[in-house]
């Protein structure tokens, strides 16, 4: 996760959408917390919906 955060900081202005895929309820809460650190639209997807996350990212 730390590598992802460093990438996000470096490319802050280049990211329009950020999909977080996980399997735990606290990860969904963490995705909500990320919203204050980026201008990107942040959305959480359950592991079972990883394909939907990719589709959502590709729509932009």
Dominant shape: globular
How far apart lie the N and C ends? 23 Å
Q: Helix count, per DSSP?
A: 3
* Strand percent estimate: 15-25%
Structural class label: alpha+beta
- Order of strands, main sheet, comes to 1-2
Indicate the percent of residues in helices: 40-55%
Largest sheet: 2 strands, parallel
Number-wise, the strands total 2
**Overall domain count:** 1
Instruction: Point out poorly predicted stretches.
Output: none
Mean pLDDT, to the nearest integer, reads 84
Q: What's the order of the H and E elements? A: HEHEH
Rg from alpha-carbon coordinates: 11 Å
Summarize this, please?
The protein is built from 3 helices and 2 strands. With 60 residues, the protein is α+β, with helices and mostly antiparallel strands.
Structure notes:
The chain is of the alpha+beta class and 60 residues long. It has one domain. It is built from three helices and two strands, in the order αβαβα. It starts with a helix and ends with a helix.
Keywords:
2 strands; 60 residues; 3 helices; alpha+beta; two-stranded parallel ribbon
Per-chain topology:
Elements (H helix, E strand, L loop, with lengths): L1 H9 L6 E6 L2 H10 L6 E6 L3 H9 L2
Parallel strand pairs: 1-2
């Amino acid at each position: 996760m730390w590598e992802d955060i460093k990438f996000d900081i470096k490319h802050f202005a280049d990211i329009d959408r950020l999909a977080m895929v996980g399997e735990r309820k606290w990860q969904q809460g963490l995705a909500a917390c990320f919203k204050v650190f980026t201008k990107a639209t942040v959305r959480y997807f359950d592991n079972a919906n990883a394909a939907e996350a990719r589709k959502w990212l590709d729509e932009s």
